[in-house]
Protein 1
Amino acid sequence: MDLKVEKALMKLVDRPKDPARKRIDPEKVRELAESIREVGLQQPVLLRPLDGRYEVVAGDRRYLAHKFLGMEDIEAFVKEMSDEEVIILRATENLQKEDLTPMEEAQEYGKMRNGLGMSIERIARKMGRSHGTIKKYLELLELEPEFQEAIDSRKIGIEAAHVLSQIDDPEFRKFYFTSAVENGVTKEVAQSWLAAYQQSKEAKFYAEGGGGGPLGVTGADKPIFQTCDGCHGPVEIKQIRYFPLCPECVKEMLRR
């Protein structure tokens, strides 16, 4: 980047409108501030002129460290940049950071898709990633907030979260999810849970006479019972959904 270093007044500089880091560790900012106090700023920030002021394009943490120190100006490269250039540059810079969380990475791809209208193929080419990887991260943006938070805090893996999100019953999805967060889960175990849930769902469907039953069976005339693994009492098979557990036992376990 063939630009000259300038001094920009801090009072005219704004943080990024949509920073990649939604949560920046104050302690890391303080440590950086102490380093800047001792040896100075080693890498100028990158700014772009915007509405008579400046917006930080790269170097948000360095900017916050200057604010922490109460400095009046900051060394910067200043460059006119379009929104597309800014989004792509920030994504490229942020994806090189080792401590970027999965959801932060997903949000970078989401800005490129939703903010710039870029296809998955184009994002993959720009970022040097595979189509499947971009698609997988974009799908994280569709997950429930509690899934996203667990992924970001490394309590559950991306693959396992995708599998468990396919459980269409909210109550049982929550049960499996809670178990995964508290005890850990691999993709393979999550797949076995999903299969067990789907099988119990199909058993309920056929026990109720859905689809005419396999091989032309039109449904049982008398109820079929199975032992509940929670209370060890009898439960009609059409009520069983998990492992098996009766609905009352699942509710009780969710309350624990």
Note: The chain has eleven helices and seven strands.
Protein 2
Amino acid sequence: MNVLEDNMGWLNLVLIVTPPLLLFGIGYLIRFRKMYWLISGYNTMSAAKKQKVDTEKLGVLMGNMCFIMGTLMFTGIMLIVLGQAAIGFIVMSGLVPVIIYILIAAQKYDGNNFDETGKMKTSTKFAIGAILAGLLVILSFVSYMVIQGFQPSAVTFDQTTLTISGSYGQSISLQDIQSLELLEQLPVIELRTNGSAIGERLRGHFRLRDVGQVMLYLKVGVPPYIVIKTAAQPIYLNLETAEQTQDLYNQIDTAWRGAQ
């Protein structure tokens, strides 16, 4: 619960619960209140085309699928927030087959997709194929970003430069470092302004209470934390274990003093 309580403001909490709640709400309105105009595609059809759609069965399908997607999203997000990132992403990956199922299953309730012989039109098959291809591209990109987010930050340096690789990585001249310290407790994280937060791994631009804008390369809950202060903004980083972080601090401190 520390990650949830200490590292997320009320705004982040609202952002987390809003998408699944919207899905639950839309599912209820379509399934039980018969607001079929909420179904994408159907709401833009002409009156003549709407006559060929079995709105009752389509509404049941879309409503139920919204409930399922909302449950998967809420469960996955909460698992990630509570530090079970791997399980959370596995749960959320269930959205992909659900979306594919919707794309395929919804077609049989739309008579506009079939010709006079009852066969699905080529144009409809092409459209479904294009959408599925787009989903695969998006899924591949998201999977890559997730895998990158799970990787620990790699820190290397030579006689003049400290380099943090990976997402949001950067290079820092050792001569630009103004101070170096080791903290046992991380200040409260108020806001993520432009970064990633996958489980307990935080990277990118964040705002800390009583500190302001900083760059984080952290695994939260594994002190100590190295603080590198430059003219631009402070940098907070650590490694997988306390021993590794302490050893890295000693190496940076030696290199920094040698560069002065």
Note: The CA atoms of residues 2 and 82 lie 8 Å apart.
